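>> received
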Amino acid sequence: MMTTSRKNDPLEPSGPDCDVVTVPARQGLEAVDILRRGAGDAVGPVLHDGGCDTLGFLVPPGTAAAWDVPGSVCTETDGRGICLTPDRPAEGSDWLVPPGEADLATDPAVLREALGQAQRMIDAADSCS
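>> returned
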């Protein structure tokens, strides 16, 4: 009897069970700095896309159901498409904050606060120019 391997099945989870909050790169970079200055270890793994247009913060599963921060999107992954290995996170992206240098996920409440503070800093900087 022949068996089939589901190892490469795109519908099978390949990574952590998490959600991903995607934000514009400028706001995301400010938020990473805020998180690192605050508790130091408050930021979990962070992805950046190939064009460096967006950042993706790994957050605990279930975050997407209640995420409502303007200018960002939270997507359920069910572990699909993300690998917590330093050399191969997800197709078309790379790590800004790699796993192993961070908690498993960023606390959504802390991220929400950091993104709000980052946006206020960006708005203040843009109003001065």
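>> The CA atoms of residues 67 and 79 lie 18 Å apart.
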